Structure formats: C-alpha cells, structure tokens
Amino acid sequence: MARLMIILFALFFFVTPGQASPKVHSQYVHGSGNAVTLQVSVPRPAPTALIFTQKVQGGQRLVSARPAPVGGKLSGSTLKWLFKRPRPGALSIHMQFAKPVRPGQLQGFLNYRDPATGSRVHLQVGN
Amino acid sequence: MNNSGSVDINGEKIRQVREERGLTQLYLATVVEVTTDTISRWENRRYPSIKLENAKKLAEALEFPLEELLGVPDEGAGTPDNHEQEVDDQTLPPSLWLTLRKRWISGVLLLCLACGGILFFWLQQPTLTARRIMPAQTAPNLSFPVIVELIGPIQFKKSMLIREDIQGQAETHSILADGTHKSFGQSPRWIGRLRRGKARFLYVVTPGKKVSPGQLLTFSGNVMSSKEQRLGDPIQGATSIQISLYHWADTNRDYSISDDEILIAYETFSPRRGPSIDFTALEQLWLAGSYTWNTGSQTFDPVPSQKKE
User: Fold this and answer.
1) Residues of A with Cβ-Cβ distance to B266 under 8 angstroms
2) Which CATH class is domain A20-124?
3) What is the value of pTM for the model shown?
4) Residue B211 covered by a domain
C-alpha cells in the first residue's frame, strides 16, 4: 500500500504536469569541399521560434548560406538565423565556407523556449 | 387481546354490521377518531389488530357487543398479511418500526444521491477563465501586443463576447486573416468560441505620441457567454502598462533585445496559427544588439556599435 502511495505521489508531481517537450536535435553534415549542412530535427510540439547562431572563427569565412541569415549579411563572426513557427520535422541550412571545414571546427548554438514549460533551451550543435 | 393492548377484530363482521345499520365509514371514522382509510382497512382485512380503546369506540358506534366483533384467527393465520398493524396507533410493533426505519434510511440515501448528482452536475458546468497578457512597458507611439487568453472545458461550445476597454490615450486594432487591420478605437470587441478548450484573442495597442513616460494605460474587460453561463466574467491578468522609453520586449530594460527576449516575445505574442504581429522592427533591434530612443521620430533606432552577445 505504501509503495502504491509513493508511485501515485511520484506520478502526480513529476510526470503529468509541466513535462518538458522533446528537445530539438541538430548536427553538422560535412559535404564535399567547403560545404556544410546544418540538419535540425524539430519535434512536436514545435517551438514558436528558433534561433540558430553560427560562430565563424579561425580565419574562416562564410561565402553563402541558404537560407540566408537574418539581415542577409554573411560577414561577421556571429551569424544568426531566426525560424518563426518552424514546422515539426527536418530543417536545414546549407552553408558554403571559404576554406575546407574540419569536423569539430564549427561551433553553433540553438536557442528556443520549450513550448510546454516555457523554459529557455540552449543547445550546442552536435558535430 | 394480545400483550400489546390491542385486539384482533373481525373485519367482515364490522362491515356487515355497519351496512345493516346504514352507517358510513365516515361516521365510524368520526366516532372512533380515525380516518376513513383506517376503517376501510379494518373492514378489508380479515382479522386486523387494533387498539382496545378503538375497538370499544367502534363497538359503541356500531351499537354492537364488542365480544362479537372480535375475531379469532385461524391456526397459522398470524402472518403479516392477516395481522396488519394499525397504522394510526401510537405504539407500533418493532417490525413496523424496522420497516419505517429502513424506508427512512433509504429516503435519506436517495436524498444524498440526488444532492450528490446535483453537485456533480454543478461542478461539471463549464467555467471559463479569461486572462490578459501584455508587456510591462511600452514607449510613446510604440505598438504593443495584448492577448486575451480564454480557457474552459473542452465541451464548452457556446459563443462568447469579449469586451475590452482602455483608459488612456491609445488606439487599438486587430489583425485580420488577410493581414489587414480592423480598428476598434479604445474598445475592442470580439465574438468567438473555444477550440479544444482554448482561445486567444490578439490585438495591438498603439499609445498616442503625446503620452509621457510614467503614465499608465489601464485595461478592463469581461467575457460574456450565454445565460446559462456566468455572465460578464472579468478578464484577469495584467491591468496596466507603463509608458517608458524602453521597448516593450526589453524585459530587463537594458536597451538591448537579447535572444531570450525576442524568443519570449514570439512565444508569448505570436500565435501558432492565424495572423501574427509584424515583428520586423523588433528583429532589427534584436539583430543590432542595442537600441536607442529617437526623440524626433519617436521611434527606437538600432545601434549596431553597441551590439551585445
């Protein structure tokens, strides 16, 4: 009986309300030459907005990106993409750099707010 | 006569004597001081058991010897069918008390069940909660979003009238599905329904250019549903917004729109479906990293040189 009460207590407080949504998953896929594709898996429910921040460091330079970052400028050490109302499923950014990119060289982050809890989620893109 | 002070009488004999004498049941009932139903019951039972006192009155009323009115039950006739107790008697046998007590308990249980059913039905009645969500501050001439969020039971299907009134120098409009605006002045009104127990009504408020920092715009409103529902429930939540020289999305008031602040703005004020607010100007401030108030144009200008990460 006591065990059942403990289980019910745990279910009531830890499982039902305020459960966080599944997290967004992301990774870089290194293509031929200087091309790198960021692949993002958006879970359901999707966040209302998603910010991807790409750091461009170590003498590297972004030549082109599809879609283009916010503002359209490719220069600078920090580039941002804002995805509004992203749909659940796959999302990708195709980037072409000036020099070949080694795996692990790129550093990028995803920011969004968990649609279920409203809490901030900050993730580093997995290489 | 039995031990409880009652006697068994012969019902058939009583009816016979009464009819021979041309007496009515009402007459007997009046003399014996019982009801006509009791007289009828005595006559229709073979050997009803009645109080001795009533038996004597009955005999007097019939002008007939009591002894001849008494019945002698057959062997085995002492069943409840043949010996119904007199209901009008003050002294009731234990079996009747038990029966009455059972009926009383059943009645109370039924009453409790009925009350429980009414309470359950009442608790199941749809209740609606309305909450207003808006920023804490805005600037003169800077439009800001307001959301009225309604939550109710999923089965709530009735139409609702949402009314808002704004005190202060401001104009309001809503964004229609085709992207055009519908002006409401200072009193936005909508008619809508819940979808899966929820509804959100988004509108935009633009303070006047002449409002001064420190002034407040105050909001009041209510939600009316049908007559069966609660009428005019007030909209809870934020009731005022302060005029300041900070952007409404700049929650920490540092003249910078951070990633988190723009995400909060989207999460809070951008509906997942339907028309949404144009956040282009806000995005420019966010991308620039910092902003400043332009007194001449009464707008916020992005300041790229002060960009913050």
Assistant:
1) 48-49, 84
2) mainly beta
3) 0.65
4) yes
